[in-house]
Specification:
mainly alpha, 79% helix
Length: 171
């Protein structure tokens, strides 16, 4: 009789060691987002996906890096199209955009690979990615809202991923 009670407890203990649950609760999300430039937008962004409530911190990090990668790919497509324009200033900015966003994509791919277990290295790459996004904005001659909006969205997504990554390092 006692063994029938002990066996499930042992199995539960073994399962919790093999499959740890590291879900990100609302308090943790609030803490992560409070460290971004736009905490309320961060919370809306993360809570807009119903999966956020059940994902582990690692899967949430992977999801946000993946989202940033897709956005980066769209930026590269946009700059490729703009690269054929006759407007010299726009073409110059498109060439700069292709240079920076190709480097950004490389950093995000590396960060995605490292985000599985090497959190410190992944966080370092995400910080470098944020630097590249800022350098792109500083280097472009077209200081229009068009560039700023696209760049700000990219910065936001990478910043959220970086803060999730830093949360994982601390916890």
């Amino acid at each position: 009789m006692a063994s029938s009670f002990v066996t499930p407890l042992i199995l539960l203990a073994i399962c919790s060691l093999i499959y740890p649950t590291v879900g990100v609760n609302k308090k943790a999300l609030t803490g992560i987002c409070s460290k971004t430039k736009s905490p309320s937008a961060c919370l809306k962004y993360l809570n807009s996906d119903p999966q956020t409530a059940v994902l582990s911190a690692q899967k949430l990090l992977s999801m946000t890096i993946s989202s940033a990668q897709k956005l980066g790919e769209e930026h590269i497509k946009m700059f490729s199209v703009m690269n054929v324009t006759m407007d010299k200033e726009l073409k110059k900015d498109a060439i700069i955009g292709l240079k920076y966003y190709s480097a950004i994509e490389e950093k995000l791919m590396e960060a995605q690979k490292l985000s599985k277990k090497q959190y410190s290295q992944s966080a370092h790459l995400l910080t470098k990615t944020l630097d590249l996004i800022s350098k792109f904005e500083a280097e472009t001659s077209a200081k229009s809202e068009f560039f700023k909006v696209f760049n700000d969205i990219m910065y936001f997504e990478v910043e959220v991923a970086e803060k999730i990554n830093l949360y994982m390092i601390r916890n």
